[in-house]
Amino acid sequence: MTNAAGNSLDGFFYPKSVAVIGTTDVEGSVPFDIFYNILKDRLNGIVYPVSPGKKHIAGVKTYKYVVDIEEPVDLAILVFPSAVCHMALEQCGKKGIKSVIIISAGFREVGQAGIEREAKIKAIAQKYGIRIIGPNCLGLINTDPESHLNASFARKMPAEGNIAFLSQSGALCTAVLDYAQGKHIGFSKFVSFGNKTDVSEIDLIYYLKDDPKTKVILLYLEEVTDGPGLMKAAEAAVREAGKPVLAIKSGRTSAGAAAAASHTGSLAGSDEICDAGFEQAGIIRCNTIEEMFNRAIALAYQPVPKNDRLAIITNAGGPGVLAADATVGSNVELARFTEKTQELFWKKLPRAGNQSNPVDVIGDARADRYEIAIEGALADDNVDGVAVILTPQSMTDIDDIALNICKVGEHNEKPIYTSFMGEMDVASGIDILERHKIPHYILPEDMVDSFAACCTFRKEMAHKLDAPVVFKDVDKAAAEKVLDEAAKAGRHHLPEADAEKILEAYRLPVIPRAVAKSAEEAAKAAAKIGFPVVLKVESDDIVHKSDIGGVVLNVADEKAASAAYETIMKNAKKAKPDAKVDGVLVAKMITGADEVILGLKQDTSFGPTIMFGLGGTFVEIFKDVSFRVAPIGSISAKEMVREVRAYKLLSGARGRTRRDVAAIEECLQRLSQLATDFPQIKELDINPLMVQDEGKGCHVADARIMI
Q1: Which helix (H) or strand (E) holds 75?
Q2: Would you call 121 helix, strand, or coil by DSSP?
Q3: Residue 486: which residues within 8 A CB-CB, separation 6 or more?
Q4: Which of 219-223, 264-268, 691-695 is predicted least confidently?
Q5: What are phi and psi of 251, to 5 degrees?
Q6: Bridge partner list, 385
Q7: Which residues, including other chains, have CB under 8 Å from residue 150's CB and lie 6 or more apart?
Q8: Which of 61, 434, 513, 617 could form an S-S bond across to 184 if both were Cys, CB 3.0 to 4.6 Å?
Q9: How many other C-beta atoms can be found within 10 angstroms of the C-beta atom of residue 598?
Q10: Common-topology check for domains 297-461 and 490-588
Q11: CATH, domain range 594-706
């Protein structure tokens, strides 16, 4: 099995021989525990302890150096102090070992000295063609009996399962293993990749995409270093292999966003961009470990629902209502039973209960009544999944109901989810469900959320290829010339006239305009363009022009244009006396149009990102915006426009005239091409883009570019 680059990771997961380099005989220490875990958990292969000064450890002969081992070694695990890891790695290279896990800490996470140590081991690895997991990691586990490798210092080997867990945090791994054991959750592969100096989450996702033992991939990240690479790997897993990818990305805040120079920069924090990138790639983002595993067991244990219609069965009205309420605002629909099902429930279930959805089998329900309701719902063509709620009453045969659910679930193509509410009284029933791989949730709301996640995954698998359009009519050379000249002049903020030249080069519809250096020039330019016009101060030093009285709208004649020029210059001098003012921009005034904003931001993790939203002066107040990572295709452009609440205004709600949405979508795609062609554009705002009636196009009224 190989990743996209053709680099096999089998040496890590299926080694026939493992050397633990730097192990000791001190029980309870990391070096000893790693060696002993491999030994006691019965690796399907040979393990060699390498420990200068020791003759044997745990009854196994030791070697002074790895090069002293007579036989070939597939995998080495380094647990030496970081200061000497490079020497051990050099010996691994000479021995011909191609896969190395470096457990040791003390690398880039500790500062400059650690950065230098990490660079040294990376250079050695490249010299010998060694793949590295780590450093600063817990190790990895493969439960497949073909290998049965516990190359970690976790307390216990997890049970075999079909969920893979990848984590940047080693400490979190130990907590997850303990959590999963308590819920009888098994794993296929379990990897702590630490500093990812070589093997990253991207390599591992590509590997797991083709792993027959893995059905669901879970990911915990503290940083995204290659957003586009991660997106491509996840897309391959989800849309090619049909394997869900669920991720937690910590660090949701962005302290730098407040200092951004544009609307896009201030709105597009790192977390919003991460959300956009994950969504485009089909990654299901989770907020907590519990939420992640709630969703994971639904995807791992049960069939993916064929549609979004859920039936709820309960022995208590309140929890049933809570579950029904949880469907509101999600992509879950309460199933409407067929007449045949309703007739069955009317005949077989108590009249005092509820025979519609949610089905209330009432408090004295035993296993037989639950069985009628569950099997009846599953047999209904209008039902895609069944959620079963149980509250423990004195007469409730909890274990029998649980066993019955397991029996029904074994022979059904539709998913079943359960919520036995409580703790002590329902504990044995929950244990039965979990051992039989029936997803269980303490709260009904979590059960519904997990069904919704399964529905999301189904839609992601069916997501059509959204190849970006490459516009042939753009003048890349003209845009490049403007940017090069600005860079040579040391400009970080382009004058509006230069910004418009770049947009015109990419055939974005810029309004006719001219720059006036005097009141007389302003009047002449306005007359030539045609009234009404708008006048705006032209200055690199004044970013938000309207805030200082630097904009005059609806100028109707030459006299008014001349007066507006004088007013703008006076206001600019008063607000910013030291500002360098290049004149006043005179532009055609577009009336009877809606204002939207298009934006661009270069993100350190994901690269160029495109924004769309409600425009004008209130964009940062309402924050009605959507984001995508460039390049985008026509599908993404359509989705961006339709995601914002303001779309109802554009689409002709409440008798309004429908606006030219297709023109907006084309502008978004052209902006995406500009963003990918010129990564030196740090931030860009088109605000407002004036959108006219359907078929009449749109116009760039104002533009701002930072490089």
Answers
A1: strand 75-78
A2: helix
A3: 494, 498, 707
A4: 264-268
A5: 80, 65
A6: 310
A7: 37, 38, 41, 43, 141, 157
A8: 434
A9: 28
A10: no
A11: 3.30.470.20
For residue 188, which of 240, 141, 221 has the smallest C-alpha distance?
141
Q: What CATH architecture does domain 490-588 belong to?
A: 2-Layer Sandwich (3.30)
77-96 tens-digit pLDDT: 999 999 999 999 999 999 99
Name the nearest CA neighbour of 390 among 416, 363, 424, 372.
Answer: 363
Element spanning 14, H or E: none
Q: 259 pLDDT band (50/70/90 cuts)?
A: very low
State both tokens at 274: 């991460």
451 in helix, strand or coil? helix
C-alpha–C-alpha distance, residues 173 and 219, integer Å: 11
Convert the pLDDT of each residue in 388-421 to its tens digit.
999 999 999 999 999 999 999 988 899 999 999 9
Q: What are the residue boundaries of the structural domains of the chain, listed by start? A: 10-250, 297-461, 490-588, 594-706
Question: Tokens at residue 279, please?
Answer: 């969504």
Position 254 pLDDT exceeds 70? no
Contacts of residue 544, Cβ cutoff 8 Å, sequence gap at least 6: none
Q: What pairing do the DSSP bridges indicate for beta strands 60-61 and 75-78?
A: unpaired
Domain 297-461 has CATH 3.40.50.261: yes
Cα–Cα distances in Å, from 467 out to 523, 632, 669? 47, 7, 11
Would you call 558 helix, strand, or coil by DSSP? Answer: helix
pLDDT-derived band at 267, boundaries 50, 70, 90:
low
DSSP letters spanning 272-334: HHHHHHHHHHT-EE-SSHHHHHHHHHHHHHSPPPSSSEEEEEESSHHHHHHHHHHTTTTT-EE
Give me 73's structure tokens. 């070694």
Q: Residue 608 pairs with which residues in a beta bridge?
A: 602
Looking at 412-473, list the stretches that DSSP marks H as alpha helix, in order from N- to C-terminal side.
427-435, 444-461
**Exposed, middle or buried by CB within 10 Å (0-12, 13-18, 19+), for 171?**
exposed
User: How many separate helices (H) and strands (E) can be counted in the chain?
Assistant: 24, 29
For 15, the token pair is 């080694």
> What is the number of alpha carbons within 13 Å of residue 690 lying toward its C-beta?
15
Q: How far is CA 23 from the centre of its chain?
A: 39
Beta strand extents in 505-649 (DSSP E only): 513-516, 533-538, 551-555, 583-588, 594-603, 607-614, 625-629
Give the neighbor-by-neighbor strand order of the sheet with 75-78.
Answer: 46-50, 17-21, 75-78, 99-102, 131-133
For the beta sheet containing 533-538, the strands, ordered from the edge strand earlier in sequence to the opposite edge, are 513-516, 583-588, 533-538, 551-555
Read off the pTM.
0.90
CA-CA-CA-CA torsion sign (157, 158, 160, 162): negative
Backbone angles phi, psi at 626, to 5 degrees: -135, 155
